[in-house]
Amino acid sequence: xxxxxxxxxxxxxxxxxxxxxxxxxxxxxxxxxxxxxxxxxxxxxxxxxxxxxxxxxxxxxxxxxxxxxxxxxxxxxxxxxxxxxxxxxxxxxxxxxxxxxxxxxxxxxxxxxxxxxxxxxxxxxxxxxxxxxxxxxxxxxxxxxxxxxxxxxxxxxxxxxxxxxxxxxxxxxxxxxxxxxxxxxxxxxxxxxxxxxxxxxxxxxxxxxxxxxxxxxxxxxxxxxxxxxxxxxxxxxxxxxxxxxxxxxxxxxxxxxxxxxxxxxxxxxxxxxxxxxxxxxxxxxxxxxxxxxxxxxxxxxxxxxxxxxxxxxxxxxxxxxxxxxxxxxxxxxxxxxxxxxx
Amino acid sequence: xxxxxxxxxxxxxxxxxxxxxxxxxxxxxxxxxxxxxxxxxxxxxxxxxxxxxxxxxxxxxxxxxxxxxxxxxxxxxxxxxxxxxxxxxxxxxxxxxxxxxxxxxxxxxxxxxxxxxxxxxxxxxxxxxxxxxxxxxxxxxxxxxxxxxxxxxxxxxxxxxxxxxxxxxxxxxxxxxxxxxxxxxxxxxxxxxxxxxxxxxxxxxxxxxxxxxxxxxxxxxxxxxxxxxxxxxxxxxxxxxxxxxxxxxxxxxxxxxxxxxxxxxxxxxxxxxxxxxxxxxxxxxxxxxxxxxxxxxxxxxxxxxxxxxxxxxxxxxxxxxxxxxxxxxxxxxxxxxxxxxx
DNA sequence: TTTTATTATGCAATCGGTTGCATTGGTTTT
DNA sequence: AAAACCAATGCAACCGATTGCATAATAAAA
Lengths: 342, 342
Known about the structure:
homodimer, alpha/beta, six-stranded parallel sheet, elongated, DNA-binding, HTH_LacI (chains A, B)
């Protein structure tokens, strides 16, 4: 195998010291411009590549950011990751990505791995059932910056990057009410998680503003999965008094529910109107097209990594920023429109 | 900040040498069992964590596998990555993931980054427009194992992990023919890529076996995106003689096409039958449910990383294995069924 | 008891950059 | 001409784990 070129090779060929070569390659101001040019040219010529391990070892930095998400293969998360990767790549940072698969146990294992990998910072969207903060303490103790995004850990004192979920829930529900629907069921996920509890708050507020009585039996907690959508449809079919609208906290679940409802001879929006959440591409390709709340997933990923890198570089203090809220918005399509029955 | 514990700390506290500590922690056979227990206990007690940078520097290994994919946020790719992450995580390897965004230029930049990050191995699914192998040469020269998956680089001598795309294309088309459809349009992606050219071969074979004349104008090359699906629908609408079936190389595109056709008063499968590819969840939640070819994305990701790690550990020789083919299968749903028009 | 194995541990060099603190040679100031 | 200063470079000690080779300690064989 071809021998690796080091700064020592460059140094000896140019009759310089390794120190000078190192400084030149890092564009240190104390080095003469001409010398820099010389060294860079020689480095290029020899096919030199810096050894990150030697460098990291000495600098005690890893240039690596850890990311823990519930799942990688959901539209939202894969898009968040795509945004993260883009920024990290541009800034010369590496990402170590792992998935908790919605289990706190796995999430704890992942944080341990991240800790041992000595990530410079950690970005987390917590699992459904996480209720302990314990496994994040080592990071705080070692002053390793920790940022939550999407599903945050409330009361943690860590910076958060979120959308205004309450506003999203409010707008979705308000829209349904404005369309004339009154008996609205809310399909959501584990209410431990801010994203779902906040949307529920928005739902409740919209109801209350319009003088509609909130009934807790109209809030159905599910896994928001494809299967959950099917079950919801069957449950609705069996209901003696059917709702006139659904507000579902995930497009994929909403869409699966709509499909199953159709199989059960309940049509959307004629019999039941539906609003989803996320603006997953799937929302545009079904019939009727799904009204939803746009979720700025890519921007969230970009923002998370940008904030982290800025903080690591000392550009701004994360402690000061507590929460960054990104813009989300209602997208009205066919699934929620009141049609006059001719 | 809390000071980091090193093997030297453990060594001095136990009156041993760092060498012994290092060996003990790595379970070296020459170390006495009792000593190992002692050292492990002390390591635990002090909260020792190994410094991967020192270790990698010395061992000249990175324990890191690079992954380059066209996009992260497609169902297939995010699922492949999920599978990769699972195995890599279990085996103590890190993944560096980057996306080429379907551009050869970006792919080249990514390979450079991977090369400079000194990944131990590289897994690649190539971009739409990649036609040069040049940027992979440095890896071969340095004998860094390179494995292609899904979209492979043909005639590269590198191991490949794929499904039998020709078989998939054949089965999809054959199924349509068996349903009585004869004028089948094939919607596909850039034919430079094996996945598309092979499926086309299967399509052609199925036609020829049934004595149906292959017409090149029945093969439409598109981006297979959501937008592409819409365009296809409009193009079909404008056709004087309409096809009776479509074989689309991506579910998302197929589904988007179906939705648009519906808007244009062409119903599926009554007017036109459709078969997709991938078994994307979206295929189950639309109406009619989409017939498709199941793509074992998670298994592919797992297999890719497993093969790579096995090779890196010297368990088996990659050069011997040239191609690993995973099982795919036709899933018949409603979108392709011939309905007798009552 | 001396010699030969066997087992367990230590020594010290090494991996390749980085960086605080000299040092050198030249220029400017007094 | 001596003193003060500055710009550019070098010296050498790190960072923390690994590993070939030597050595010590103990057991087994002669």
